[in-house]
Automatic annotation (TrEMBL):
SUPFAM superfamilies, per database record: HAD-like
InterPro entries noted in UniProt: HAD-like_hydrolase_sf, HAD-like_sf, HAD_sf, PGP-like_dom2
GO biological process: DNA repair
Protein name: HAD hydrolase-like protein
Keyword DNA-binding in record: no
PANTHER family per record: PHOSPHOGLYCOLATE PHOSPHATASE
An example Gene Ontology molecular-function term: phosphoglycolate phosphatase activity
Cross-referenced Pfam families: Hydrolase_like
Species of the source: Nocardia terpenica
Keywords from the named record: Hydrolase
Origin: domain of life: Bacteria
Amino acid sequence: MCTLLVLWDIDHTLIENHGVNKEIYAQAFEFLTGRPTQHRARTEGRTEPEILRNMLIEHGIEPNSDNMIRMLEALDSATLSKFAILRERGHELPGARDALTALQSASDIIQSVLSGNIKPNAVTKLSAFALERFIDFEVGGYGSDDNVRDNLVAVAQERATVKYGVEFEKSNTVLIGDTSRDVQAGRNGGAHVIAVATGSESAEELQAAGADMVLPDLRDTQAVVKAIRSLAD
Protein backbone atom coordinates (compact mmCIF):
# COMPACT_ATOMS: atom_id res chain seq x y z
CA MET A 1 0.00 0.00 0.00
CA CYS A 2 1.40 3.41 -1.01
CA THR A 3 1.01 5.67 2.00
CA LEU A 4 3.62 8.40 1.56
CA LEU A 5 3.79 10.98 -1.22
CA VAL A 6 7.19 12.56 -1.89
CA LEU A 7 7.12 15.59 -4.20
CA TRP A 8 10.43 16.67 -5.71
CA ASP A 9 11.32 20.06 -7.09
CA ILE A 10 13.49 19.62 -10.20
CA ASP A 11 15.85 22.51 -10.97
CA HIS A 12 18.69 22.88 -8.44
CA THR A 13 17.19 20.08 -6.36
CA LEU A 14 17.57 17.02 -8.59
CA ILE A 15 19.42 18.58 -11.53
CA GLU A 16 21.62 21.57 -12.29
CA ASN A 17 21.01 23.31 -15.62
CA HIS A 18 23.96 25.75 -15.58
CA GLY A 19 22.05 28.61 -17.16
CA VAL A 20 20.21 26.59 -19.81
CA ASN A 21 16.88 27.51 -18.21
CA LYS A 22 17.46 31.19 -18.98
CA GLU A 23 18.18 30.24 -22.59
CA ILE A 24 14.99 28.17 -22.70
CA TYR A 25 12.88 31.12 -21.54
CA ALA A 26 14.57 33.46 -24.02
CA GLN A 27 13.83 30.98 -26.80
CA ALA A 28 10.24 30.52 -25.64
CA PHE A 29 9.77 34.30 -25.65
CA GLU A 30 11.07 34.46 -29.21
CA PHE A 31 8.83 31.59 -30.32
CA LEU A 32 5.88 33.38 -28.72
CA THR A 33 6.52 36.92 -29.91
CA GLY A 34 8.74 36.59 -32.97
CA ARG A 35 11.36 38.89 -31.49
CA PRO A 36 14.43 38.41 -29.30
CA THR A 37 14.25 39.17 -25.60
CA GLN A 38 15.79 42.33 -24.18
CA HIS A 39 15.50 41.30 -20.52
CA ARG A 40 16.69 38.12 -18.83
CA ALA A 41 14.12 35.85 -17.25
CA ARG A 42 13.62 36.06 -13.49
CA THR A 43 13.14 32.55 -12.16
CA GLU A 44 13.79 31.87 -8.42
CA GLY A 45 11.10 29.26 -7.89
CA ARG A 46 8.43 30.85 -10.10
CA THR A 47 6.27 28.76 -12.40
CA GLU A 48 7.23 28.73 -16.07
CA PRO A 49 4.01 30.44 -17.23
CA GLU A 50 4.58 33.12 -14.58
CA ILE A 51 8.16 33.62 -15.78
CA LEU A 52 7.06 34.05 -19.38
CA ARG A 53 4.15 36.33 -18.42
CA ASN A 54 6.57 38.56 -16.53
CA MET A 55 8.85 38.65 -19.55
CA LEU A 56 5.97 39.77 -21.76
CA ILE A 57 5.08 42.57 -19.35
CA GLU A 58 8.70 43.72 -19.07
CA HIS A 59 8.79 43.99 -22.85
CA GLY A 60 5.61 46.03 -22.96
CA ILE A 61 3.42 43.19 -24.22
CA GLU A 62 0.10 42.69 -22.47
CA PRO A 63 -0.61 39.01 -21.74
CA ASN A 64 -3.89 38.02 -23.37
CA SER A 65 -5.87 34.88 -24.07
CA ASP A 66 -4.12 34.32 -27.39
CA ASN A 67 -0.53 34.42 -26.16
CA MET A 68 -1.47 32.55 -22.98
CA ILE A 69 -2.82 29.66 -25.07
CA ARG A 70 0.35 29.58 -27.20
CA MET A 71 2.63 29.99 -24.18
CA LEU A 72 2.60 26.31 -23.17
CA GLU A 73 3.49 25.19 -26.68
CA ALA A 74 6.31 27.77 -26.82
CA LEU A 75 7.72 26.55 -23.49
CA ASP A 76 7.56 22.92 -24.58
CA SER A 77 9.17 23.61 -27.96
CA ALA A 78 11.91 25.76 -26.44
CA THR A 79 12.84 23.09 -23.90
CA LEU A 80 12.99 20.39 -26.56
CA SER A 81 15.20 22.65 -28.68
CA LYS A 82 17.69 22.94 -25.80
CA PHE A 83 17.64 19.24 -24.85
CA ALA A 84 21.11 18.45 -26.23
CA ILE A 85 22.59 21.56 -24.62
CA LEU A 86 20.99 20.67 -21.29
CA ARG A 87 22.54 17.19 -21.44
CA GLU A 88 25.93 18.66 -22.36
CA ARG A 89 26.12 21.50 -19.83
CA GLY A 90 23.83 20.29 -17.07
CA HIS A 91 24.10 17.34 -14.72
CA GLU A 92 22.20 15.46 -12.06
CA LEU A 93 23.05 16.73 -8.60
CA PRO A 94 25.22 14.56 -6.34
CA GLY A 95 23.12 12.05 -4.43
CA ALA A 96 19.96 12.61 -6.46
CA ARG A 97 19.99 9.23 -8.21
CA ASP A 98 20.82 7.34 -5.02
CA ALA A 99 18.02 9.08 -3.10
CA LEU A 100 15.51 8.39 -5.87
CA THR A 101 16.62 4.77 -6.04
CA ALA A 102 16.35 4.26 -2.29
CA LEU A 103 12.83 5.69 -2.21
CA GLN A 104 11.77 3.70 -5.25
CA SER A 105 12.64 0.50 -3.40
CA ALA A 106 10.17 1.35 -0.63
CA SER A 107 6.76 -0.16 -1.38
CA ASP A 108 4.87 2.50 0.59
CA ILE A 109 6.35 5.55 -1.19
CA ILE A 110 5.18 7.33 -4.33
CA GLN A 111 7.62 9.77 -5.91
CA SER A 112 6.39 12.60 -8.11
CA VAL A 113 7.24 16.24 -8.72
CA LEU A 114 6.03 19.61 -7.46
CA SER A 115 7.49 21.89 -10.07
CA GLY A 116 7.09 25.25 -11.68
CA ASN A 117 7.84 23.48 -14.94
CA ILE A 118 4.94 22.56 -17.16
CA LYS A 119 4.48 18.78 -17.29
CA PRO A 120 6.18 18.12 -20.66
CA ASN A 121 9.22 20.10 -19.53
CA ALA A 122 9.41 18.26 -16.22
CA VAL A 123 9.58 15.00 -18.18
CA THR A 124 12.09 16.39 -20.68
CA LYS A 125 14.46 17.79 -18.05
CA LEU A 126 14.58 14.61 -15.99
CA SER A 127 14.84 12.49 -19.14
CA ALA A 128 17.98 14.39 -20.09
CA PHE A 129 19.71 12.66 -17.19
CA ALA A 130 17.74 9.37 -17.19
CA LEU A 131 15.98 10.24 -13.93
CA GLU A 132 12.43 10.10 -15.31
CA ARG A 133 11.94 6.40 -14.51
CA PHE A 134 11.79 7.13 -10.79
CA ILE A 135 8.88 9.54 -11.08
CA ASP A 136 5.12 9.01 -11.37
CA PHE A 137 4.35 12.04 -13.52
CA GLU A 138 0.61 11.31 -13.49
CA VAL A 139 0.29 12.53 -9.91
CA GLY A 140 2.55 15.59 -10.00
CA GLY A 141 1.75 19.27 -9.64
CA TYR A 142 2.99 21.50 -12.46
CA GLY A 143 3.26 25.15 -13.38
CA SER A 144 0.58 24.63 -16.02
CA ASP A 145 -1.92 23.45 -13.38
CA ASP A 146 -2.29 26.69 -11.42
CA ASN A 147 -0.89 30.21 -11.44
CA VAL A 148 -0.27 29.97 -7.69
CA ARG A 149 2.55 27.58 -6.79
CA ASP A 150 1.09 27.03 -3.30
CA ASN A 151 -1.96 25.38 -4.90
CA LEU A 152 0.10 22.72 -6.65
CA VAL A 153 0.45 20.60 -3.51
CA ALA A 154 -3.31 20.00 -3.37
CA VAL A 155 -3.34 19.24 -7.09
CA ALA A 156 -0.73 16.52 -6.61
CA GLN A 157 -2.41 15.14 -3.50
CA GLU A 158 -5.76 14.87 -5.25
CA ARG A 159 -4.24 13.11 -8.24
CA ALA A 160 -2.39 10.65 -6.01
CA THR A 161 -5.53 10.02 -3.96
CA VAL A 162 -7.55 9.22 -7.09
CA LYS A 163 -4.87 6.94 -8.55
CA TYR A 164 -3.83 5.08 -5.41
CA GLY A 165 -6.98 5.16 -3.30
CA VAL A 166 -5.17 6.66 -0.31
CA GLU A 167 -6.03 10.04 1.23
CA PHE A 168 -2.99 12.27 0.94
CA GLU A 169 -2.71 15.27 3.24
CA LYS A 170 0.02 17.03 5.20
CA SER A 171 0.67 14.06 7.49
CA ASN A 172 1.79 11.86 4.59
CA THR A 173 3.12 14.37 2.05
CA VAL A 174 6.73 15.61 1.93
CA LEU A 175 7.95 18.27 -0.48
CA ILE A 176 11.68 18.55 -1.22
CA GLY A 177 13.03 21.75 -2.79
CA ASP A 178 15.81 24.32 -2.75
CA THR A 179 14.10 27.73 -2.55
CA SER A 180 12.02 29.73 -0.13
CA ARG A 181 9.21 29.54 -2.68
CA ASP A 182 9.33 25.75 -2.41
CA VAL A 183 9.16 26.05 1.36
CA GLN A 184 6.24 28.46 1.09
CA ALA A 185 4.42 26.17 -1.34
CA GLY A 186 4.71 23.28 1.07
CA ARG A 187 3.76 25.22 4.18
CA ASN A 188 0.80 26.97 2.57
CA GLY A 189 -0.23 24.03 0.42
CA GLY A 190 -0.30 21.35 3.09
CA ALA A 191 2.94 19.37 3.07
CA HIS A 192 5.98 18.85 5.25
CA VAL A 193 9.05 20.46 3.70
CA ILE A 194 12.65 19.34 3.45
CA ALA A 195 14.85 22.05 1.97
CA VAL A 196 18.22 21.32 0.40
CA ALA A 197 20.82 24.07 0.17
CA THR A 198 21.82 23.19 -3.38
CA GLY A 199 20.47 26.34 -5.02
CA SER A 200 21.11 30.03 -4.49
CA GLU A 201 19.74 30.19 -0.93
CA SER A 202 21.68 29.25 2.17
CA ALA A 203 20.64 26.71 4.76
CA GLU A 204 19.97 29.59 7.16
CA GLU A 205 17.67 31.32 4.68
CA LEU A 206 15.75 28.12 4.04
CA GLN A 207 15.40 27.47 7.76
CA ALA A 208 14.16 31.02 8.28
CA ALA A 209 11.60 30.48 5.51
CA GLY A 210 10.05 27.73 7.62
CA ALA A 211 11.41 24.44 6.30
CA ASP A 212 10.78 21.53 8.66
CA MET A 213 14.27 20.23 7.96
CA VAL A 214 17.26 21.53 5.98
CA LEU A 215 19.92 19.32 4.42
CA PRO A 216 23.12 20.58 2.79
CA ASP A 217 22.48 18.36 -0.26
CA LEU A 218 21.34 14.86 -1.21
CA ARG A 219 24.70 13.09 -0.87
CA ASP A 220 23.81 11.27 2.36
CA THR A 221 21.11 8.89 1.17
CA GLN A 222 20.39 7.55 4.63
CA ALA A 223 19.93 11.07 5.97
CA VAL A 224 17.49 11.91 3.15
CA VAL A 225 15.40 8.78 3.75
CA LYS A 226 15.51 9.27 7.53
CA ALA A 227 14.37 12.89 7.19
CA ILE A 228 11.42 11.90 4.99
CA ARG A 229 10.39 9.07 7.28
CA SER A 230 10.68 11.21 10.42
CA LEU A 231 8.37 13.88 9.02
CA ALA A 232 5.80 11.37 7.86
CA ASP A 233 5.67 9.41 11.15
